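note to self: the first set is below, dont mix up w the second
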Amino acid sequence: MADETNGKGNSRTTDASNENRNSLTGDASNGNGKSSTVDPSNENDNSCITDEPKRNDNSRIADETNGKGNSSTTDASNGNGKSIISDETNGKGNSSTTDASNENINVSTTNASNGNDNSSITDESQGNDDSSTADSSHGNDNPSKDDESPSSADKAQSTIER
């Protein structure tokens, strides 16, 4: 079933000027789309659900002008994103979570303008931070147990030796 000026359509249901579509359901001027459900003006789309003009998108759910995205969930103008969810202008990160204009992100969790961050959790503009826990300027403090006064056992021993 194809409706309204479809050219070369190989889909079950296509509407309104679709070209070369191989999807189950495609709507409103999609070109070369191979998805289950796609909406307005998607081109070369191979995802399950995509919304609002997307090109070359291979993700499950991608929203708002994603180009060439291969992620589970990406939002708001992500380019070449391979992440699950990521937040706020991360560049070249490798995270699980990405939102809002992220490019090439592959980190676990990054927040607020981190660049090239490959750590587990980093907050607010930290660069190349690979330490577990660092506390206020301690340098090589590894004493076992040094006491300045001799113990009562030491005093008793010295009395016996005398």
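second set (the one i keep forgetting abt)
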Amino acid sequence: MGDQQSASEAVRLRPEGVRGSALTLVAAQATTSLGTAVTGFGMNVWVFEETGSFALFATLAVVAALPGLLLAPVAGVVVDRYDRRLVLLVCQGVGGTMLALTLLAALTDSLSPLLVGVLWAVMSTVGAFSWPAVSASITVLSSPERRPKVNGVAETLMGTVTVGSPVLGAALYRLIGIEGIAAFDLVSYAACLGLIAYMRFPRGHKDAGPERGAGGGPRFRDDLREAWRFLSGRRDLLRLLVFFVLVNVGLSMFTVLYSPYVLSFASSGVLGILLSLGGAGTIVAGAVYSATGGPAAKHVGVLAGALLAGLSMAALGLLREPYVLYAVAFLYGTSVPLLNASSQTIWQANVPPELQGRVFSLRRMLAWSMTPVSMVASVPLAERFAAPLVKEGRPAAGIWGTGAAGALGLTATLCGLLCLLVIALTQATGGLRTEGEQPVG
């Protein structure tokens, strides 16, 4: 394919003076992700302890998600127009500054839920710019052959963050409080800043695209139009994008319901083990993906990951025995690298490097566009639809149980069935094979 050749040429013609590798960049991103995840755990505990309000807790989750979605198109243009290394350095600087202010507020007893909301909004904004910058930079810092393995390493590290952050966050919160957690995150941002400052990225992607208009305004609109023209002209990539939009509806609702569901019939210790085992599954699957490069046909990896996630969500909603839940939680964790690494590799191979910032940002915005709606909809779905179905004497109560556990369990199962339905419809209407990929079977 022409797009794949463009990506390959970008690697072969890489200018001299490049310093660092894609793995260095992935390690830097994982470092700051760990700090942010630990801070997230600590801040969530602090907010709940201070207010006891689940509604405020959910509101902060939506506040954290919205800026990243709304600013995605702007972030994509910036990432493609300017030096991506500089974009990442600014992101680390802004995030570190906000953390320093949060630390100061905590030390002076001025921390409030409002400030926590501002912190998450800023961090979401930082993520909107840093994610496409990292994703697009991996393309030009690694060869097409090594790219799946780099993406597998990234998923392994994120699995490690998922496993380690709750344990580390709980320990740090107990030992050094919210002030110490903010300081820990600040150190992680400084470490990431140092690694990125050491690196030297390939240049040249900024020269592509339409000419800059007077004052820069028309150029911004043209940049977005160019990315959309590319995306709308690739029906295979659009199908993949629509697939993720629909699957993410189920995944988002399940993510919101997961902890309350488990806590409705089990202890917080069981929940901690389930979350850790899910992260362990991600680590193991990510390591295998990195070592093998994943399925030769990446769309098969996407479908297999969605299938594992759907089956696991459906089963988790039905089960109550802890040891069986542990096995399913691990299986659910293995779906993450299959989905994410396979999808990322497809997009990196099919989008020219000079367009990746914009296209990846549009892709992320659209793929997660239903996340806030799904988060909000999960509550009435459980309370007004599922709860009446699992009342004493109803047929569903004999399968999912009664009360909160029954209602949330039924909703979790519906999330899994939604994913399975999306897979079936996708396969019935042509599948996810992208241009240049050979059919399987």
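remember for set 2: The chain has a mean pLDDT of 83.
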